[in-house]
Design a protein that fits this description.
CATH topology of one domain: Rossmann fold
Distance between the termini: 57 Å
Order of helices and strands: HEHEHEHEHHHEHEHEHEHH
Low-confidence stretches: 1-27, 139-144
Shape: globular
Number of strands: 8
Largest sheet: 4 strands, parallel
Mean pLDDT: 87
Length: 328
């Protein structure tokens, strides 16, 4: 893997700004901050902190076009974008193992790299295997023995804190606009905190306090924020798609035992496991989707999708999954 990345790094540095996906150094962009964010939630946080009329910043979403965080490997063009940027923001989990090698080379000696999981410190959770969940086979993965849960963006509280940290990072690189970044982050934080309050109120009013996923589970940070219990077929970073009979039977039993109104999936799911669980649980159960934003693209963002809009949609789904009656 390191040999492959070394070749990509060499190609990136030779290609420089000529690579199509890399930020271009033109008369219009020469004085702009070049910022690269790996995934959509982080990309959108930077957009909010920079502000809608920011003309001093070029922002690139690295994992674009539905690329999955867990299977992503950088291209030479991606390496060029990272090598030439002023600020590189990444999650810092097991799926970002390639980043250490990518950061060894840079065409910009002043480039700043921000590892978001490092900023959260002890508030990062270890990925856990709960009752009924199929444990991941780590023999086929390069992950550490105690893998951390990298889906930190599913917490609105984390989003508010990390957006403020991104404002600090931008301000260090661009002192002339530091006050604007700080003000934008504060205003954005108020919106995030308000939505966080709506989530808390929904959970408080809910007759059900358990979520059940017939799918992978990337929402550990969300359920921890509001004290919810959960069951799922697979951990958040699992590559598995086929659940065993034992797992399906256990989850179907939990749906019946707890009389859950819905079984959840994540975006892009074929819902086959969820359908089997519902069929075996009996009763009238919905199959709902919570969006972890792992396939959201820059095109979606240009069409109006934001981190907040997705989390607002997720709140509506959560209310239904927890049996919260809609107000008349």
């Amino acid at each position: 893997m390191k040999k492959i990345l070394s070749v990509l790094l060499s190609a990136a540095l030779l290609a420089g700004c000529a690579a199509p996906a890399a930020p271009q150094t033109t008369p219009e962009s020469a004085d702009k901050l070049q910022v690269v964010a790996t995934i959509f939630p982080v990309y959108d946080w930077v957009r909010e902190v920079a502000g809608p009329d920011a003309e001093n910043l070029d922002l690139t979403l690295l994992l674009d076009g539905g690329t999955d965080l867990h299977s992503y490997q950088p291209s030479a063009q991606d390496m060029a974008a990272i090598a030439n940027c002023d600020l590189f923001v990444y999650v810092g989990g097991a799926s970002d193992a390639w980043v250490a090698d990518a950061l060894q080379e840079s065409a910009n000696p002043d480039r700043k790299a921000v590892n978001l999981m490092e900023l959260l410190g002890t508030r990062v959770y270890e990925e856990e295997t709960v009752e009924g969940m199929e444990a991941e086979d780590h023999d086929d993965h390069d992950h550490e023995e105690h893998e951390t849960d990298e889906h930190i963006w599913t917490s609105l509280q984390n989003a508010a804190e990390l957006s403020a940290s991104l404002a600090d990072a931008l301000g260090e690189l661009d002192p002339a606009n530091a006050a604007r970044y700080t003000a934008n982050a504060a205003a954005y934080g108020e919106k995030l905190n308000a939505l966080d309050g709506e989530y808390a109120a929904a959970v408080e009013a809910a007759p059900v306090k358990t979520l059940l996923f017939g799918d992978r589970f990337p929402f550990r940070y969300l359920v921890e924020d509001y004290g919810l219990a959960y069951y799922a077929a697979f951990p958040g970073c699992s590559a598995e798609t086929e659940a065993s009979f034992e797992t399906v039977a256990f989850l179907a039993g939990k749906v019946s035992e707890l009389d859950l109104p819905a079984v959840l999936t994540i975006e892009g799911s074929d819902q086959k496991i969820a359908q089997t669980i519902v069929q075996n649980a009996g009763g009238d159960r919905a199959i709902l989707t919570l969006d972890a934003m792992q396939a959201t693209s820059a095109e979606d963002a240009a069409a109006g999708t934001t981190y907040l809009s997705v989390m607002e949609q997720n709140l509506a789904v959560l209310r239904q999954a927890l049996g919260v009656e809609e107000e008349a």
